[in-house]
Amino acid sequence: MKHQPPRFARQLLQWFCHAEFIEEVEGDLYELFQFRVQYYGLHSARLGYLRDVLNSINRYRSRPRKEPVKRSLSSWDGLQHFFKIALRNLLRSKTSSIVNLTGMAVSIACFLLISIYLIDELTFDNYHPDAGNVYRIGYSFKSFDGTEGKDSRAAGLWSVALKEVMPEVKNFTRFSRFGYPGKVWRGNPNNVFVEREFFWVDSTLTDIFSIPLASPGNIKEILRNPVNVLINQSVAKKYFGTADPIGQSITYVRDGLEFPLTVAGIINDPPTNTHFRPDFLASSSALNPLWKQNGGEDRINSWTDSFSYSFIQVQSGTDLSKVSEALQEIFNKHLGDRASTTRPVLILLRDIHFSSGLMFELDRSGDIIHLYIFGSVGLLILGMASMNYINLATARSIRRAKEVGLRKTLGINRLSLIGQFIGESLLMTAIAFGLALVLFVLCLPAFNELTSKSFDLAYLVTAPMPFILSLVVVIIGILSGVYPAFYLSGFKPISVLRGTFSPGRGQEYFRKVLVIVQIVITVLLLSGTYVIHSQLEFIDRGKLSEFKDQIITVRLGNISANDMPEFIQKTRQDPRIKEISFGPHLPRLDNFGNISRSYYFDELGISNLSVEQFDTDFDFPTMFKLEFIAGRDFSKDNPADTAAIILNERAVRDLGITPANAIGLQAEDVAYYEQQGKLVPVTTKHKVIGVVKDFNYASVRRNIEPMAIQGQWKSAEMMYVSLIGEAAEYADVIDKLTSTWKHVFPAAPFQYWFMDQEFGRLYQTERQMGELFVSLAGMAILIACLGLFGLASFTAEQKTREIGIRKVLGASSLQMLILLTSRYVKLALVAFVIGIPIAFFVISSWMETFIYKAETGISYYIWSCLLVISIIVVTVGVESLRAARSNPSDSIRHE
Amino acid sequence: MKGTYLGEFEEIVLLAVGILRDEAYGVSVRLEIENQTQRNVNIGAVHTALHRLEDKGYLISRFGKAEEVRGGKRKRLFTLTALGVKQLREANALRKQMWSQLPKVIHQI
Questions:
Q1: In chain A, which residues have their Cβ closer than 8 Å to the Cβ of B75?
Q2: Could you give the dihedral angle defined by the CA atoms of residues A123, A129, A130 and A133, in that order, rounded to the nearest 10 degrees?
Q3: pLDDT > 90? residue B69
Q4: What's the whole-number mean pLDDT along residues A656-669?
């Protein structure tokens, strides 16, 4: 046997030497090696071989000498060819193309809607110049029972003083909704509009806020004159129609004083992403006559009267703790006793939207968790559509196998095949994107309704949307295309063309995994939908909301209580009016003032039980059908009941006694009233006569606190009128009520709303989010169904012959149906095992944010799973049934 | 034009291919050069030169038969092209032309 050159050197040679030269070089070296073995011996021959190999390491030989002759078409022809093939493939497999296009279009449209929503939420108040350096001054305080509260407003002089002591504070401005809600009339004093967004501002407003003027002029100049008012475009339309509003006059009414104001400018309607959305802007100094009429002081320029929203603009890089310290210093100097419990709360203008727990916020705050939820649902939907594409593309791979084989034989390299397939998915995504834009336009009005925003098409072209859109199309195109591209381009031409090709198990497993993932997502969204729905139902079933669409709430304002019996007596004559009662503003929203009192129970040795005190009349418990668990209701036969109270369960529990023992207890209520700038305690004695079951009088996100119903309605905020009869008659009843009111209280406006409107406001976020979630989940489920449908129809098509033969051998259609659907049902079962724990975890953490929640038993998940199974059986079954019922002679003959 | 220039080693390789006629391949070319010039020649250098000359169009190559002595590998046999011959002629002519212009003295040394 001949000696062989060192293996390592030979491998080295083979590794670096290009295939074009390897045969020649290896042969030559081998010949030399044998020659050397013969003449110089094995050892030197081996050394010589190694030296020769090393000498041959030469860049020149590791590359082919010439570029291979280019056989590709010119780029234009290539492109034309690509489009032709891509379109032919789209048209050839109509079912899967339709599935893909619909799924993609729907998911991209959803994604578009979600992303404009998210961007809008995340850019709240971002458009004001220097918004990153603007802070709102608020304060935190300790109330008498030691609980801490935060107020989003400040006293007017704080920011003024702060600017004086801190050079870093460049600008400040203050505004208030003093006298909220404002009453405005034009022309006829009886035609009063109630305006919630009437702001009294400083002329420095535009130093910090960007408020574009739609009419000529300068806001600063206009606001210097206290008789001027600025209104926005919608208000201008509401008051003046098409007439030119400039120079017109409107009158603001407050406490019997009239403020004639001249419209001096029109401001643009505020964008959706701001918490400050003024309808009217007037100078704070216009209020001076009101404040000073009884020798009072200028309330805006006060140290303690904290009702203005104050904003400061600081130099960038200013240490916030220094600002806080300076404010604390100001508090210490001017707030007297309160200074020790008052702390400044500075919030960045941009963060106001997502800050929570402050009283008197101008706008309901956003919930970042919802944004996360929607963002993830949007991505999940996109992912589902992408998975559909991958599934169908790999399932149909056998159809394209011959094409790949032929192309490869003709010398197309793998890279350009990959390019071709990714290109096809990009093309598909681009077409879907076009459809998505159409869907977007169609859905936009409904979406605006759902989210109470006012998006228009211009949002699509404002930065950063075009960037995000193109990025999404490219990423989705590539993500969907990449696996099919690598898989398809990897076919061996020889086995494909010889006809021995069969798709490997690997991609089938991959497809199964994708189907499982889709079902997991579907289960997750379905159970989410289910839980959200039941939570919303639960909210609706709350005690107060039981008759919410039959109860009218009327704001009492400062009407004279002495005239009330006359009103009641007149009103009661109408048989459609069931009951009239008085009480606090219910349901209680977060931004309402405090109704807490501190109660002393001497007999129990308990002092300082903080109780929410409802000032109501005797009819209140009856009207809201409160359930007594001990004691009795107020009784008209017992005039002493005006000093009685009814506690709720929670209060009794906090006292550490049983409801029955609570009856007859004495409680002392200590309320503080401001007299000559000092808080003076006033003590009232109550006797407990009853205990009612706990009921949610505020959002279910809040705890039920100890509560006491007092049969004294003199300081009640609201009158409740419950109606009987058909909803269609309500308008007429309300007309009657209004005229009676006008007759009895000519000076007071009749402001009313149905209680469900207030509940609507209370749960606006939950409801909107719930509805949005449900629609998105619906879309996701639709896309998953589409994918399963496409896959099932393909399987059925593949199995035509199998089905035919089985039927010839005596199988029934039902057996065929089971054969075709069982694999998907199996996948679904696997998906349930994975999906339910995930769904359980996600949903429980969402439900954590509610304190009172609907029951969420395992039945939710079981129902969701059953629903998913039936969806699968229906989608897969419809397609399979067609295949199963086909005449076997057709399907077998077609071969 | 770049590439028409013929280096000394390249000229020798070209000449050796010419001398070997139909039997010119890496090993034989190397042997021929070693015999003629008495200097040690590296096979890698020979390959490089041969391929470069082929790129320039002075040589043309074809595969010979697989041989057992070569471990079953084929030879790449090189032949001069007309352009190669012309290039050799030109190199020779240039050399002669310059020789003829040398002063007589040199001849006497």
A1: 24, 27-28
A2: -70
A3: no
A4: 86
Identify from B48, B70, B74, B77 which residue to disrupt to test chain A contact, counting A C-beta atoms within 10 A and taking the largest count.
B70
Task: Please give the Cα distance from A494 to A405 (Å, whole number).
Answer: 7
Interface contact B73-A52, CB threshold 8 A: no
Q: Tell me: the pLDDT tens digits for A58-99?
A: 656 666 655 555 555 567 788 888 888 888 888 888 888 888
User: Which sequence spans correspond to the domains of chain B?
Assistant: 8-108
For residue A868, the model assigns a pLDDT of 85
CB-based contact (8 Å) between B69 and chain A?
Answer: yes
Cα A278 to Cα A202: distance, rounded to the nearest angstrom:
13
Name every chain B residue with its beta carbon within 8 A of the beta carbon of A52: 42-44
Q: Most confidently modeled of A65-74, A304-313, A721-730, A848-857?
A: A304-313
Indicate the residue of B30, B54, B70 with minimum beta-carbon distance to A27. Answer: B70
| Closest by Cβ to B47, choosing from A25, A34, A66 | A25
Distance from CA of A414 to the nearest CA of B (A): 29
Chain B contacts of A48, Cβ < 8 Å?
Answer: none
> Which of the two residues, A747 and A275, has the higher pLDDT score?
A275
Q: Give the residue carrying structure tokens 């859109």.
A: A469
Model pLDDT, residue A66: 57
What's the token pair of residue A355?
């800050």
CB-based contact B47 A30, cutoff 8 Å: no
Q: What integer pLDDT is reported at residue B1 of this predicted model?
A: 39
ipTM computed for the complex:
0.88
Question: How many interface pairs between A and B have CB atoms less than 8 angstroms apart?
Answer: 66
User: What per-residue confidence (pLDDT) applies to A291?
Assistant: 77
Task: Tell me the C-alpha distance between B10 and A761, whole Å.
Answer: 93
Give the closest residue to A280 by CA, choosing from A364, A185, A351: A185
pLDDT at A435 over 90: yes
Cβ contacts (< 8 Å) between B30 and chain A: which residues?
A: 32
The confidence score (pLDDT) of residue A756 equals 80
How many CA atoms lie within 13 Å of A670's alpha carbon, on the beta-carbon side?
15
Domain boundaries, chain A: 7-62, 77-123+365-503, 131-354, 505-546+756-895, 577-723
Pick the CATH number of B8-108 from 1.10.10.10, 3.40.50.300, 1.10.1740.10, 2.60.40.350: 1.10.10.10
Using CA atoms, how far residue B21 sits from A617, A894, B15, in Å, is 126, 65, 10
CB < 8 Å to B52, chain A: 60
